[in-house]
Target: DYW domain-containing protein
Amino acid sequence: MNLAAAMTVPLSLYHIRPHPPFSSDNSIKSPTSTSTSIAVTTTTPSAITSNTMATTNDPIHPHPCLAFLEKCSNMSHLKQIHAQMLRTGLFFDAFAASNIVAFCALQDPGNLHYARLVYSQIPDPTTFTCNSIIRGYTNRNLPSEAILFYQEMLVRGLVPDRFTFPSLFKSCGDLHEGKQFHCHSIKFGFSSDSYIQNTMMNMYSNCGCLIWARKVFDKMVDKSVVSWATMIGAYAQWDQPTEAVTLFNRMESENVKPNEVTLVNVLSACAKARDLETAKLVHKYTDENGFGYHVVLNTTLMDVYCKCGCASLARDLFNKMPEKNLFCWNIMINGYVEDSDYEEALLLFREMQLRGEKGDKVTMVSLLLVCSHLGALELGKWLHAYIQKEKIEVDVTLGTALVDMYAKCGSIENALKVFQLLPEKDVMTWTALISGLAMSGQGEKALKHFQEMQISGAKPDAITFVGVLAACSHAGLVEEGISHFNSMSDVYGIQPSIEHYGCLVDMLARGGRIAEAEELVQKMPMAPDHFVLGGLLGACRIQGKLEAAERTAQRLLELDPENDGTYVLLSNIYSSMKKWEEAKRIRDLMAERNINKPPGCSLIEVDGVVHEFVKGDSSHPQSTKIYQMVDDMINQLKKAGYVPDTSEVLLNTDEEEKETALSLHSEKLAIAFGLLSTNPGTPIRVIKNLRVCVDCHTASKLISKVYNREIIVRDRNRFHHFKHGFCSCNDFW
Model:
């Protein structure tokens, strides 16, 4: 629909409802002389009228009532002034009456209902008076009332002016209304008014109609810097950063100097597009043109650098800022979190505290994410206590972050407690709990909460179903899992992605249905990835299906010949079946192709400090004691029947050396440190970057029994809860 066609569109009047006539009870009567505290000189009515007309139009000597009105601060005083204006006859001057309406409609202590009552008693209201009421409704977020009053204004025969439409465009609830007001602005002669066109562009942007916003922009005869900023901001808002940057470049070529708003908008677009080069050019421009100390501009620039992976550049800006608001601290902390520099994020929060700045919901969400990645439960508990102490509102986002943190730190009980206390839960909250239960080996509980989620009315999304299918897989509920997979498209209209097919393949393979899993891989609507084939290969190891493992490994190596995990897993399968020559061949192939298995790394938190161990690590200050504890631990385990499983050791050495290599694995070092550094009976929590090996899994089960400790290990696949000699994964991982 073009602008010419829009001229023919009438403004719908379906909003109009009869305005109830004001009864004598609602009308504003002139109070008696005893009801006012403002003294008025006694004159005859004729003198009052003549004086009124004279003083009203005299800019040097305004009428005393108007002077009082300028200083009015509340409705009580306003009503007294209004009463005096009625007594003197001044109220019946259109200009004077419009000031009463403007105060009631636009000032903070005003009263829109009173403004309407006053308006109803003005014999000949002006467009200015109507504009005040429309603007008052818009400012108070009453868009329907603003539009209804505009329609009443038209019915009364009043003609809108250039100040009427900006408020109406802000009140538009949908595109249909916006187009009608667009038509009216043209019909009333404002087709080239840049002020109206700017608000019109903003209206189209808010309605998500960037095509029309751009049409208005392109037809503008006089494009101000506000016009450019509005259009660039619209593109940035609706995730079209490339168009925003292109328009900014065109703005420069037309020699239009950007203002702060334009620069902030283009930097927001750069953040979404990860356009580091344009951001650097904007940074240079701000330095050269005196914008260097603009807080909002610098903060937005920091955000761009963080999102582009340049936390050091952001930190330079941050350090140079003379004043830092909470938003700046949050941007920088979150930047370090996104850059996986968790230590710097925590140090910056510490510095923030020392400067007397208190965190808010945004700060806490970022820091809880740090705890989730590090498995730092004690730090997470401290942050939870901080939230309660500082009375930070736990909304859906922060509540979900708490549930996710506790679940990923292996404290599913606390995750459940937080979840149950949340007054409001959205799909992400339910998903965090369901996925946490599934990864903790509590598949049936996860499915129970999925049922409760459906009863509550929350609609699951694609991520929720990844957690549901994982729960079915870990609980061995194959048929139920297939049913949930089918319900995705049949009931919820969600098209299964490769993650969902990967879960289904894993589920079938775990259940011993290797042939069906292979068939599903062949029939998938998309090519399988590492997740799908890796799950199938792992299941082949557990099920002892050598031929299927070889076929799957071949496909994995075709997909990525440099992936060390495929070689290691296939070699382990050969070793577990005593096929030593084949295992050696795979290891030789790794050496030939210069493929190295990444070192295992394990994290453990003790007294709020996260300690990191790698295989054979000797850098820890307590290394001597730790290795003594490892030796004691292995001796105790052997007395309990432990036999080291050397099948996964990729060394061509004798058994004793292989056993020594096994004892140096990072999770054994972390567990030994945990036994040394924590009180008897307390749980030990370890985070590992690789899949737990068979030997460490067996040893951890025995350690939990011999030392009477609960050991929670989170590897790259799932949680293992070792307790009384058993694991929550039922030896299937």
Notes: Residues 603-727 form one domain. DSSP finds 38 helices and six strands in the chain. Residues 623-639 form the longest helix (17 residues).
